[in-house]
UniProtKB/TrEMBL annotation, chains A, B, C, D:
HAMAP family: IolG. It comes from Nocardiopsis gilva YIM 90087. This is Inositol 2-dehydrogenase. Involved in the oxidation of myo-inositol (MI) to 2-keto-myo-inositol (2KMI or 2-inosose). It comes from the Bacteria.
């Protein structure tokens, strides 16, 4: 069975997923594309033999659309996701699930009312081979109960439009989801430290930041976010348990010895770092849709990320320890 | 465009390629399957909605077969490959291309007469990300002209039917092809050293072996083959050039610290080590067939491997340095 | 010239330094030893052909003592160091310099009045080859201005008498001194996070702890202290600068591949980790005494460590961010 | 007890050992120095408060010389070593023990006649922490019976006077001794492969060379010697046993991430690589002299190295496999 996918939003990430669905993923084809820029939608659709449609609702309603992929800009996500739920169609939504916790909650309510999971949120790190191997080690009990996680998220540079709150919403949000998933635990409070700023940044930006989270079980998580580190795109993660530690591997690369150094590359682009994770993510989503059982990051995960990010931004501005207000996960998302 | 593939040989590797073409590779479907065991062909074909046919020739001739994949046992390869060439259809042949140099040469003659490349041989290491990164370093000139390559090919164990000549034909053949490709050079002689045998082997087997090759340009290649090393499946390769060295990376894996050790896994199965290389190999083959331009390992590479393996086996038995007899590569395969 | 050393305190660390001065260090001999346990002093002295004396003052005053090494218990340090200053003799004092900031200040005053440096404090990590290489990288400008330092200090286990404040005074004190030295910067505030406690500890102990320091220049330092980590003695340090990072190397050790793992040892004992640093430390001290110019960690460094530790312990108890109260370093210690 | 050492030969390595004995090694002092250049002897002696003497025999005979260190040029070694044996004094001789196998045998005969070991040969790699840790792993049985050893010995460049035979006598001689010691086995034959020469060399020199040794137990050893590798001084060694492998560690060094690379230094100078090994070697020799029991590399090891080097040079010139002619080790050297 081939899964027919309708795509809402044909920007950079949307076009990339269209390419992925057409040339890499097995068992899927893109049948409909829409975008606020109709020409862009037409062009992307034509490239893969799909139709372009005028609105997201038309995509959702199309008879030849089995599942919906939402890659529009963040504020438009909730409407499309709610529309897909109303139509009873599986929907993959790039992060954020919605730009407000309130909208996230509406989605949770609608999906719960529908009675089974339809929504998957695009936290692709859960599909990275390195993180998966880390989780396997943690779950095996080899390092004992996790007590601490140390993370670093470094980008070479960011453009001027990147502001201090994006360090949470666009950058640390990946660590926030990943740590919740690695530990099977919830983040209950946030604090942000603001080190001396690098001189390689735009004036308005607090860079780096150190974010400190506490989980419901009492584990402590520190996340260094440093988005103008100059030297590369570098993702680090170490979990420390009662009896051992496990560290996320760097990407495999040949070691060269020349000119007095032994060296290997540091990646420069997040797309290179997580290209395979995206491929696996979408393949598994397509497979799960075909099997009738969506199982990736859920609406609850999208909601939790939104709550934690909001608390973290407040922590950045106030300097205080801020509660995330997250209560128990509903049984529906257990 | 979807490439319709007919598969000749539905054993372990054939069934694996059928699965790969159906569930991983994009842009292909299996339409016909044959095997000397008709039940097996029927079963594998049914699993992916393909027809089973009685003979390889029927598969080659089928109207809904655009390209042929040969995964029968070695002695049957030549006939199917020659049949596909006669039909003017692209054919992917698992190694060996043929079991005699003479048959390899017949294939080269037929393909050359046809006028453009149709044959690709299944040397999948050229599609491994680590080897590709190594080749990129070598081609960049960063280590200067290559002078030596040190290789090791270790398997945890082999079954009793594995005999001393298979160390060349089934095991070192991968290094033989890879080194030719990494260096862009030809192997002109072979010598085999026979170290003290491991006690963890069947009586009849010389294990380990050290194979010494010389290239046309004078580079020296040593290949340790050790197929009962017990500890894992471990592939090592280091190229030494005039100004530097480059080493094949080990697969990325988390480092665990526990119980007084820092450690990571060594793979146990060659399928785990090269699973992605197989996926990439078949995807690129399908893409090249769709684009009308086969470009992977050629009939010449299959022939050269056969000639080098023959010389190497003679070297094993005689203890002498044996010439491979390889002359210049025909312009057709440049 | 041979430096004659008098040793005050012949406990474990004192006896170890006596051995070091006698059998490893060049250009020194131990001539006098004292201890509150006279038998112990006699035994240690006899082992190296030295005299045992009744009191520290006798050691300080002895004509055949050129320099004094203080390895008594902490509360007795100040008296011996002040005595050596009064006698105008160089004195090496194991950490802490004194158990109160007030006593540290008396030593600073006495040494300053004397007019040139006589005191060296036993912060041996400054003599570790790995930390020295890290400092060289930082000082070279290769990673730019340091913005953050991430440290971990892990011991396999601690005895029952180890209590929560010792995580600062006995454990993190090393990171506190090392970071001040690596950065050439002062620590101005401290905060302590208390993760979920490991179950592998005595009841009274908060283990692990995460200590957060800020420097005068605004760099942020986090130190994980985990003294019952079970798996080994593991010291980690990474400095993050404006343009790059540098990481403390693990001790060199052979990598073994066996039984499906590649692995190396994690040390179990801090003495193994820093044995060479102790040797270098004492050798350089002896050399500096012979050259008439003491230059290692100073009384000011001992005082600063005391002030920072006091603030950190307060931070542990209050949960607040506590100022260390450290003002500018006197010119005498520049 | 202080060991009084007389030094014969005050060239670069001799002067270095004089410095080592005076400023690093504990329990020794240099009392007498000689050199064919009397001014040089006087200068080196004066620097450490020793006498300079006119001849090696005077040094050997001096009443204040307990032990002799021979660092003259190779052809003069045998005379000094034989003189020391005649005087019944322990003697440390830098490699080679003698420049002919015949002279080595005279030394063995004289030492055997004397009745207990007096001679230690300067194979300092046995004192390197990395090789010692490797040997510990091998001796523990963790990798099973060793079957192969792969070595590489690379220097950045060599001066014009370095010729092809020196690749054996001055370079590979270290691997030859180290492998004999690691395996506790004897080398019985040699073969040399001559790869394409690097263009970064003087005309007369075959560089690189690959040396192939077989041991009495049937283990195979390959040694890549490449003395103009440009990029650094790089020593590699991997032992492969029946159940596992162990690899010599690279020197510990901080990893820097900057400008798109993660990198660490490759040493440039053999003195940096083995500085500590030299210190340990001489310290242990001094300790063994003081204890009356010389135990390092023996005259037999010096003789075996000479025999193997001679065979290897013949192998280089003939292209043949050459027997080393080594018979059983005498009981005296067991």
């Amino acid at each position: 069975m081939t899964v027919n996918v309708g795509v809402i939003g044909a920007g950079m990430i949307g076009a990339d997923h269209v390419r992925r669905l057409s040339t890499i993923v097995s068992g899927a084809q893109v049948t409909a594309v829409t975008d606020i820029d109709a020409d862009r939608a037409a062009s992307v659709a034509a490239g893969v033999g799909a139709r372009s449609l005028a609105t997201g609702q038309e995509v959702i309603d199309a008879a030849d659309v089995d599942a919906v992929l939402v890659t529009s800009w963040g504020p438009a996500h909730a409407e499309s996701v709610l529309g897909a739920i109303a139509a009873g169609k599986p929907v993959f939504c790039e992060k954020p699930l919605a730009t407000t916790a309130e909208d996230c909650h509406k989605i949770i309510d609608a999906e719960t009312a529908h009675g089974r999971r339809l929504v998957q949120v695009g936290f692709m790190r859960r599909y990275d081979a390195g993180y998966r191997a880390m989780k396997q080690v943690i779950d095996s009990g080899e390092i004992g109960t996790p007590l601490m996680v140390h993370c670093a998220h470094r980008n070479p540079t960011v453009p001027e439009r990147y502001h201090s709150e994006m360090a949470t919403h666009d950058t640390a949000v990946h660590e926030i989801d990943t740590v919740r998933w690695l530990l099977g635990d919830e983040i209950v409070s946030a604090q942000v430290l603001t080190p001396r700023r690098t001189s390689h940044r735009f004036e308005h930006l607090q860079d780096p930041q150190i974010m400190l989270f506490e989980t419901a079980e009492g584990a402590r998580v520190d996340v260094e976010v440093f988005v103008n580190c100059q030297y590369g795109y570098d993702i680090q993660c170490e979990a420390v348990g009662e009896t051992g530690t496990v560290r996320l591997p760097d990407p495999a690369a040949p070691v060269v010895r020349s000119a007095g150094r032994q060296s290997g590359p540091v990646l420069q682009d997040w797309k290179d770092r997580f290209a395979e994770a995206y491929d696996v993510e979408i393949q598994e989503w397509v497979d799960s849709v075909a099997a009738g059982a969506v199982s990736g990051p859920s609406s609850w995960d999208g909601y939790a990320a939104a709550m934690i990010c909001d608390a973290n931004v407040e922590a950045l501005h106030t300097g205080e320890i801020v509660s995330t207000g997250l209560k128990d996960r509903p049984a529906f998302y257990a």
